[in-house]
Amino acid sequence: MNIRDYVGKRCLLKINKGYNSQVEEFRIIEVSPSGNWVKLLSNYSGQKFWKSIQDVSFVELLQQFEDKPAKNC
Predict the structure, then answer these.
(1) Which tens digits make up the pLDDT trace of 13-45?
(2) DSSP reduced 3-state for 54
(3) Do residues 9 and 49 lie in contact, with contact meaning Cβ atoms separated by under 8 Å?
(4) Do residues 65 and 24 make contact, with C-beta atoms less than 8 angstroms apart?
(5) What is the rounded CA–CA span in Å between residue 1 and residue 52?
(6) Of 17, 6, 4, residue with least CA distance to 59
(7) How far is CA 44 from CA 12, 72, 73, in A?
(8) What's the rounded Cα separation, in Å, for the pair 28 and 40?
(9) Rounded-to-integer distance, Cα 43 and Cα 16, Å
(10) Whole-structure pTM over 0.70, yes or no?
């Protein structure tokens, strides 16, 4: 898996927090030039933060929604 392929996308990720790891929805904002760090936006709290790529496990890519859905009339 190349994390750079998911920049700007909504993903389910598991963030390792010791014994308390949960699957949550994040948007991947940026990847460091070395590829060792990833900047995430939490869908739950709205927080942006950097996390070591070793602490992030990819679970699933979520569907992107249109900003203004087309009318089917």
Answers:
(1) 999 877 877 899 999 999 999 999 999 999 989
(2) helix
(3) no
(4) no
(5) 15
(6) 6
(7) 12, 31, 34
(8) 5
(9) 17
(10) yes
